[in-house]
Amino acid sequence: MKLYRDLTIRQKKIVWAWGFLAIPVLFYCVVRFYPTGNAILISFQDWNLLGARTWTGLDNYKKLFGDPVFWKVFKNTFVYLLLGTPVSLVISFVIAYHLDKIRFMHGFLRMLYFLPFMTSAVAMAWVWRWFYQPVPIGLFNNFLASIGIPQISFLNSTSNALPSILAPAVWAGLGFQIIIFMAGLRAIPKSYYEAARIDGVSTWTVLWEITLPLLKPTIVFIVVFSSIGFLRIFDHVYNMTTQNPGGPLNATKPLVLMIYQTAFSSFDMGYAAAQTVVLFLVLLAVSLLQLRIMRDR
Amino acid sequence: MATAEDLQVKPKADVLLQTGPSRPPRNMGQIIRFLLLFAGGILMVMPIAFMISTSLKWPHEVYNLNFIPDEPTIENYIYVLEDGRFYWWFLNSLIIAVITTICSVIFDSLVGYTLCKFRFPGRYIVFIAILSTLMIPTEMLVIPWYLMSQQFGWLDTYWGIMFPGLMTAFGTFLMKQFFETVPDDFIEAARIDGLNELQIWWTVAMPLVRPALAALAIFVFLGNWTAFIWPLIVTNSVEMYTLPVGLSSFGDEADVAWELIMTGAAISTIPTLIVFLIFQRFIIRGVVMAGLKG
Description:
A: mainly alpha, 14 helices, B: 2 domains
């Protein structure tokens, strides 16, 4: 205590700062940095949890890049991204743009659109899974049958299954994106619109020349945020295909599900770790690329 | 004298979310726009509504398209709760979400405050280090976390489920941004009054950023309540499952009827929906704050 009292105010503040940070710094080292390093390390080893860990160099990566299932999964992951991001971006912008202009029951409408964001992905995956069942069980097919349209095979078809699984993921994220878009729209100074009106510019021109360019930071945020979400899709796929995870015929399997199965069904830790490193690099590359593209434009 | 309420930082989000007075639509275009948006909104809540409606139906009615059950029943809820598992899963989820929320709100704001208001050697390194963890996906960490849990006997325990989420880098940055708005003079004044640094943080700075704390708490709670992949990996025994993991295994059982799955899904969704309906303005503001800062 005497020692502390002799310190200058500046030194005391340093002691306090590191006192505050001691536990968090320890936490970040043990629970974030060490595991990151460990994952990279394991990716160069062969290990099935029980036996010895043997150093195998790049073998896991070589195996991965020669594995047709990996390429299928890699493609699926990007299909989720390339379908999900633009679709949700366009829908949420259109809704936000019009909702912003509505004063009547605005709060109520906003609530309706936001509600799905508060749901749990697992619960909603099961709800949608039920919707997708064939007659006489599934809601969608029952509805189609009632108006005389032929049945659609949603989850059992290799071509329809992926978009069917993507739909609830897009649906659940829309509310968040709409709110962010509306805040972005409100942040645009009214004077721009007034000036445009005085000049007699058409609504479309205002949209393309004023609204969208000024919304760029919002768009960048939403694109990066939702891309990362779609690249990491797991809960929906796992729960909608529990009988045959990632099926039919791996048509819906994303990278995270492959990682889960490799690590916790096959217990091939080294191989799974190599897949997580690839996931990390993909996420990094996609985020950097998008920030780059959006900034240049 | 100014109270903490007066000085509370007014979030920019509030300005952006003012709905203004509700005016009925005036012309045809407005009416069409309203009707389309209204129809879209109904479509958006349809899956939730059908989940709840089905959970209130008798088995013979489940596959009918009618939205309102002919004879509503809470029999499904009684069945599911008497089974006992959902009761446990609900309790597990609640305990885990509450503890992680408290923990991460406290630690994230403490770290955010320290990085914002103190000048000390190593500050920049700590800042960059925590920032860099935002780039690391959870999925990359689950394997080492699993090995760690196995080594220390954390598998299948509350601690094992909770430990990865006790602090979040996202929350730290959110809080750091908000502490920027707390004037340094305040902190200096409190220091002159003889408060120590811990007291200053807790009694002076924290009340001023209450809206941000609430936003963070809601995000962390929702994140932990719905978390799936890590609880799925770390739990083995049925009693330790959280609601999402439990629901997933329940739905997968061979002979479970859809109305019971819908009931389970409703049990895991309704609490967050109620929280949302109560704190609606608060939550939407939180989303905007996080979005603008993030």
